[in-house]
Amino acid sequence: MLGGELKNFVSTLRVLVDEAKLTVGPDGITSRAVDPANVAMYDLELSAAAFESYESSDGLLGVNLERFESVLKLAKKDDLVQVSFDTSTYKLLIVIDGVEFTMACIDPDSIRQEPEIPEMELPINLTVEGSQISRAVKAADMVSDHIGFRCVEADETVFIEAEGDTDDVSLRLIADEYESLDAADGRALFSLDYIKNISKKLPKTEDVTLTFGDQFPMLVDYEIADGECSVAAMVAPRIET
Amino acid sequence: MLGGELKNFVSTLRVLVDEAKLTVGPDGITSRAVDPANVAMYDLELSAAAFESYESSDGLLGVNLERFESVLKLAKKDDLVQVSFDTSTYKLLIVIDGVEFTMACIDPDSIRQEPEIPEMELPINLTVEGSQISRAVKAADMVSDHIGFRCVEADETVFIEAEGDTDDVSLRLIADEYESLDAADGRALFSLDYIKNISKKLPKTEDVTLTFGDQFPMLVDYEIADGECSVAAMVAPRIET
Amino acid sequence: MLGGELKNFVSTLRVLVDEAKLTVGPDGITSRAVDPANVAMYDLELSAAAFESYESSDGLLGVNLERFESVLKLAKKDDLVQVSFDTSTYKLLIVIDGVEFTMACIDPDSIRQEPEIPEMELPINLTVEGSQISRAVKAADMVSDHIGFRCVEADETVFIEAEGDTDDVSLRLIADEYESLDAADGRALFSLDYIKNISKKLPKTEDVTLTFGDQFPMLVDYEIADGECSVAAMVAPRIET
């Protein structure tokens, strides 16, 4: 697999956790990571097709992401990275341009269990270039610790907005500026820290889909690794006072 | 107005102060900023012609420059930035590529008054590329906390020089290396911190004019915003012992 | 002499010491620097031919490298730097693009004496591109504080390897990947800090020669300044437990 894409996979999980359970199988690798405060979650599905060659039976690995990420720093963006798992020693073997790393895995049972996800009806669905969200998040960061996503159905418009003690900021997205919108009236407020970290990993020039509702959690969906890895983030809202 | 130019205007004032009074009027915006120790001063005159379109009645605004500067970070160099003032809410509205900031102004009376400037006769006038001054300042910084500007009339030469405990540094500017010189014998010594901060904002490849005299303040004059904003800095000398 | 090359000469010595004795003479400049713990040593020989023009009688100068290095920061890579020594004031005069620095020298007797170097038989001799060593050192740094160099005579192979508490790393260099090898069985272990600092100064795309033996010191030889400056580093091994 290309170094840049594997780095992206690992660093996305690292936004929320330092250790992760990877579920491996013949079709690829999946992982669900939930932050310690249970506010945000990532679901990643990395297809076998993302690899030059891939072979795996079913299994569960506990991986120290921090260590994995530091090993991957040795790989340039276009270096092929070779990863294999030795079931007898419970170690990962990572080969980057002739350098071999042997990395011990962690007992997956020692890693925090993810919570159950409730079923939700989220009526608002916005698809927009990742850079639009990043820009609004950067702007919000200048005035507040929170960020709101608000949809006005009649105007087919979404506002990403933040209110500080003295200053406010707002990005209005009208029809020309988004790819598609299922509109409904509603607004949800989020802790800026979580949105900021998620926003840093968004693809800049590719589409990102936000799904939210009035005072409900928000889903952020997009693809990485040339379409072969789907990323789904979910963030719990803050109660507005 | 272009983001890069407005950033330059605001960051120049920020060299000396965190809050500034902007005097607005039909012809443009002016501001005088003096540092808390009354050692250095900036006079900026930003012409209405620096803007794509400009309209203003006479008024006085108190602006938090730190906050203004951080908002402008969102603008790329060539982004158009739109600034308007709401006289009813006493707030600035800044629009950068679709993102709207609403920024509260400060009561101008709460900002420190600038002192009166005495009339001075400064016989030495040197016009030279900004990079020459920056280089000499960087060099001086390696050996001392002070920097001297000295003119020798007979040689039509200016020395920018610094003396440390064990090491010295000197840049000699002779006829070929400056644009023009009104020579007179004299030397003035300055605190390096102030000259260093002023030097960081100098245009590198454009002309800068230094006007000074024996043990007198120095004026540093140049233009930014494609000639539509004049900058005049003044620094008080240190008494030589 | 070119700024980039002189910076390289000074910063190589700076890896181990802050002050150095430079032995100057008609043929060039030599210096031997040993770190305070006597673990590593540099021998540099800078030929007179490295300079555009060079003239010197025999002498010994004590130089504050930290200060020298900071002065050289003013020089761009291709700036000519002019260095002369005033025997009456015991000061160096450094001229960089019109800026003159006068820098006091240090009494060479106040600088630590270098130890005697014992004669050694080192049977293994590997010549390889500098980047190969740098890569292995970076990888070792992720798992351990030590790094081993091991040669297997029968395979004509050298391993650069490190063992951590849970993770290991290894770079295997076989016939295609090095320039030349005098093979013998043996392994030597070194403190990673020293190897890391030496590795940072290695030329990336030029050949570097490693000479070592079983549990013996290692020599690292290469050239800088377009072949006009030879660098020889020596590092003492760590005893394996």
Write the layout of secondary structure elements.
The structure is a homotrimer of 241-residue chains.
Chain A (H helix, E strand, L loop, with lengths): L2 H12 L4 E7 L2 E7 L5 E8 L11 E6 H8 L8 E6 L4 E6 L2 E6 L19 E6 H12 L4 E7 L4 E7 L4 E6 L6 E3 L3 E6 H9 L6 E6 L5 E7 L4 E7 L6
Antiparallel strand pairs in A: 1-2, 1-4, 2-3, 3-16, 5-6, 6-7, 8-12, 8-14, 9-10, 9-13, 10-11, 14-15, 15-16
Helix pairs in contact in A: 1-2, 3-4
Tell me what the structure shows.
3 copies of one chain form a homotrimer. With about 240 residues, chain A is α+β, with helices and mostly antiparallel strands. Chain A is built from 4 helices and 16 strands. Chain A folds into 2 domains: about 110 residues, DNA Polymerase III, Chain A, domain 2, CATH 3.10.150.10; about 100 residues, Proliferating Cell Nuclear Antigen, CATH 3.70.10.10. Helix content of chain A is about 15%, strand content about 40%. In chain A, the strands form 3 sheets. The first copy, chain A, has a 9-stranded antiparallel β-sheet. Chain A has a 4-stranded antiparallel β-sheet with strand order 11-10-9-13. The first copy, chain A, has a 3-stranded antiparallel β-sheet with strand order 5-6-7, with helices on one face. In chain A, strand 15 and strand 16 form a beta hairpin. In chain A, helix 3 runs antiparallel to helix 4. The first copy, chain A, is elongated. The N and C termini of chain A lie far apart (about 50 Å). The interface between A and B is medium-sized, with 14 and 13 residues.
